[in-house]
Amino acid sequence: MSRAAIAIVAVIAVVLLVTVGAIVLTTSRSAPQPAAQANGTRVAFYGDSYTLGTGASARSKRWSTVICRERGWTEFNHSTNGLGFINNRAELRIDEPAQVIADKPDIVFITMGLNDNFSYDTSAKQIHAQIGTDFRRLKTALPDARFIVVEPFWYTDQRPTSLGVIIRWVKEAASDIDADYIPGASRWIEHHPEWMASDGLHPNDAGYAEMAKRMDMELSRLGL
Fold first, then answer.
1. Which domain holds residue 46?
2. Which residues are CB-neighbours of 79 under 8 A, at least 6 positions away?
3. Residue 39, pLDDT score
4. Same domain, yes or no, for 86 and 190?
5. How many domains does the chain contain in total?
6. In terms of Cα–Cα distance, which of 31, 50, 91, 93 is closest to 195?
């Protein structure tokens, strides 16, 4: 082969290498990226230890985080151990509704009420009044948010009379602000001691998994 022919072959080889390299580089840069989990929906929770996830081995196991992760929602969870509409509110000096409002959520979950059973005998009137006050305050501050009110959770097979009364008050307040209402949550872990953490008060990972399953079913019913 002549020197001229060899030179032509070399030039062609270089051109092919550059072209292939450019194709590979372009393909690499333009490859579609995995879709982000978050879809922009901001979801805030006004709740107690059962929404905080106390008793779970990790926050990722709590029902609120599970349903948000599955739906690509951004979770804002200010839930507090021992807090009720009235119970421990003055002592803890926590204003969860204010925190929820500051989050500017698209969806608000209200899962409060369990701990107020422990204050019912001395503060029933105050509890009833505060439920309505909190609901109206949140609705006024967040008129475009979708509200999902969950029947107060409960933790034993024995049910005090106060529980039924507080459940009724919460349901009525939900209706007053045109919120979606999820019934039956006080019985979701009933008769299943194996779903309780070692403290006997809160769900364990299996308990929260069951709560997430039940919540998922209810949200699907609501089109969420």
1. 42-221
2. 45, 46, 47, 48, 49, 50, 51, 52, 53, 64, 96, 111
3. 79
4. yes
5. 2
6. 50
Count Cβ neighbours within 10 Å for each residue of 35-52 and write b for 16 or more, e otherwise.
eeeeeebbbbbbbbbbbb
Query: What is d(CA 197, CA 224) in angstroms, rounded to the nearest whole number?
Result: 29
The SS3 of residue 175 is helix
At 8, the pLDDT band (50, 70, 90 cuts) reads very low
Q: Are residues 174 and 197 in the same domain?
A: yes
Amino acid at 111: T
d(CA 74, CA 44): 8
Residue 36 inside a domain? The answer is no
* Beta carbons of 123 and 130 less than 8 angstroms apart: no
Residues 26 and 107 in one domain: no
User: Tokens standing for 54?
Assistant: 């106390």
Task: Quote the pTM value.
Answer: 0.82
SS3 110: strand
Span 108-148, pLDDT tens digits: 999 999 999 999 999 999 999 999 999 999 999 999 999 99
Query: Which helix (H) or strand (E) covers residue 75, if one does?
Result: strand 74-77
pLDDT tens per residue, range 75-115: 999 999 999 999 999 999 999 999 999 999 999 999 999 99
